[in-house]
C-alpha cells in the first residue's frame, strides 16, 4: 500500500485541490475520533456509496483506518477493492488514526462535525438571537403571538417536537415563510433537536430580511426536555406550500441573500459541459427540494439533498473537498439559500442552476444509488420458505444491516453482524449447515454473501429475497432489541435521545460538545469559515 504521512496529508488538504479523505471504519468508530475533513464510508457499505460520494476515478483518495493495529485489515481490503473498481490515486494515512494523533494533529469526535462547528461559528459571528426553553414556555402559557418552526426533516419532527410547533425543514423556511407567517408582529422561534439547525434556520430568515423578530430556541428539543418540559410525539403539522404571491416575496429575499453572499448562477449549457467533466473537475448535481418533489420530477443524474440537511450533514453528500457543486430546484429560492450557506462554509465552487429545473425532460421516481457491482448474487430464499424452516438448529439467520435497524425490528432468532468484521466475529456462531443473510432490501446481504462464503466454505449461504421488508410485508413476526450480536455494537453513532441509558446526561454532554467545537476548529486550522459583511 502507498502510504502518506500526516504532514503530507495536511499539505494536500490545504492546497485547494480536489481530494477525498475517506475513513473506512464503521460510523460508531468514526464518531469516537476522526479527521475534521474526512467522510465516513465504511468498508461494510463501500459498494453502496463510493460511486456517488467519489464519482471520478482519478480523484486523489486518502484512506484512514486503524491500521496497522486493526485485526480485520480493513484499510488493506479497502485499497484492494477500490483498485479493482478503477480508483487510480489511492494512498493510506501512515499509522491511521493513531498516526495522526502521534503527529500532534487534532482529532474530532461526533458526526457531521464540520457542519455543527459551522453553526456555532455563525451564532458567535452574527450574534444570532436565541430564547431559552423557560422563556418560551412562559410565552406559551401566556398565549403570546408567536410561532415555532421546527427545521428538521419530517421523520425527526414526528419522533418528538415542541408542543404546538410546525414542521418546516431548514431549506424550506424562506420558501414557505410568507404564506404561513403573515403578521410581521408575530415572533418566530426556530428549533431543531440540538443547536445547529436552530441557529442556521433562524439566521436564514434574518439574512433574508423577513420583517418579524426571529429567535433560535437554545438547545432545541434536547434543551426543552432538559428543562423539564414535555414533548409531543407523532405529530405531522407543517407549513403549507407557498402561493404564487408567497413565492414572489421569497424570491425578493433570495435575491438579497444572493447579493450579500456572492451566490453564483450557471445556465444549462454550462451544466451540460460540466456533466461531461469539462475542465476535469468533479461535479455534484444536487436537488435541494423535498424528497416528495424530487420523486415527482428531477434532472437526470441529480441526487436529492434537501437544503437544510445538505448544510447540516455536508460530508454525507459530498466527499471530495474543493469539488464543484451545482444546486437545483424549481425557482432558485431554495437553491440560492442553500448556496449562500455553503459559500459561508468555505466551499468555493457552488452554483445555482439559473431558472430551475423546468418542467420538461425530467426523470421521475426515487434516486437509484450508483452501486458498484461485480459480485454474483447468492441464491435466494423467499420469506415463506424461511418462515417454514424456522426455528431450526441447522440454520442461522444473520442480519448485516445497522444495529439501529436490527434493534428496531428483525427476524426472530436472527444474529447480527458487521459485514467488514465477519472474518473474526463469525467464530462464535454455532456450526450450522445453512446461513441466510438479511438486510432491508437484500442488497447489502448479497454483497456480504461472498465474504461469508470465504469464512464458512462448508455452509450453504442464501439471501432473504426482498430483504426484511419483504418479510414484514408478508406479515411474519418481528423481534426487537439488540439480541445475539456477533460483532461489537459500535457500527453507528447513536443520538443522545436514542440511548437507552442516561439519555439526559448524554444530551447535556452533546450540547456542551457542540459549543466547544469552534475553538477546537481554530486549533486544527484545516477549515476556515469566511465572513460576509452587509
Radius of gyration: 24 Å
Total helical segments: 23
Strand content: 5-15%
Helix content: 25-40%
User: Biggest sheet: strands, sense, closure?
Assistant: 6 strands, mixed
Unreliable stretches (pLDDT < 50, length at least 5) are none
Protein structure class = alpha/beta
User: Tally of extended strands?
Assistant: 21
Oligomeric state, counting identical vs distinct chains? single chain
What is the rounded distance between the termini?
50 Å
Using the alpha-carbon principal axes, give the shape: globular
Mean of residue pLDDT values: 95
Please sum up the structure shown:
The protein is an alpha/beta fold and 534 residues long. The chain is 39% helix and 14% strand.
Describe this structure in words.
By secondary structure, the chain is α/β, with parallel strands linked by helices. The protein has 23 helices and 21 strands. Helix 9 crosses helix 12 (244-260). Strands 1, 2, 3, 4, 5 and 14 form a six-stranded mixed sheet that branches.
Primary descriptors:
single chain, 5-stranded parallel β-sheet, 6-stranded mixed β-sheet, 21 strands, alpha/beta, 534 residues
Q: Helix and strand layout, with pairings?
A:
Layout lengths: L2 E2 L1 H9 L4 E5 L3 H6 L6 E2 L5 H8 L7 E4 L9 H11 L5 E4 L2 H7 L10 H14 L3 E2 L1 H9 L4 E5 L3 H6 L6 E2 L5 H8 L6 E5 L4 H13 L5 E4 L2 H7 L17 H17 L3 E3 L1 H8 L7 E5 L3 H6 L6 E2 L2 H6 L7 E2 L2 E5 L4 H13 L4 E4 L26 E2 L1 H7 L5 E5 L3 H6 L6 E2 L5 H4 L8 E5 L4 H13 L4 E5 L2 H7 L29 H13 L1 H8 L10
